[in-house]
Structure formats: C-alpha cells, structure tokens
Amino acid sequence: MEGWVYYPGRSPLGMMARFGFERRDGRNLLVVAAIMTAVMTIVIDAPIVARLIAGMIMGLVSALVFVITTVLIRRYKPDHW
Prior knowledge:
mainly alpha; elongated
C-alpha cells in the first residue's frame, strides 16, 4: 500500500494507544457494538434486511460514542482516579 510504512516491533494498535486506549478498551468497544447491534436487530419491527442495517448503524453509533467518551474520560479525569 502506497504511503504506509511498516515499523517492525510496533503494535498495529498504535493509533489506539495514542489516545490512551488499552487492550481491554478495544475488547469493550467490540462488546458494546455487538450488544447494541443484537438488541436493535431484535427490537425493530421491520423486514430482516432493514433490521440488520439499522442494527449495524446503531452498533457503529454506539461504538463511536464509546470511543469519544473513553478519550474524554482519559484526557480530563481527575488525578486521584
């Protein structure tokens, strides 16, 4: 891929580490997105394709809110936490 540089020994999660994410935060992100996708797919009263699409959109929105919240908490939390 043009423009990409490989650095041996560096984690592929380097961007997440830049924002203060840990490995467990990535796992929690996937859990939140999966649960919200499943709940919305079950709850919505529509044909299955519309349910899946709405569930995936809601899962992505939930994941985005999770990332923003985690970054803000890590950046502005009090020192005594």
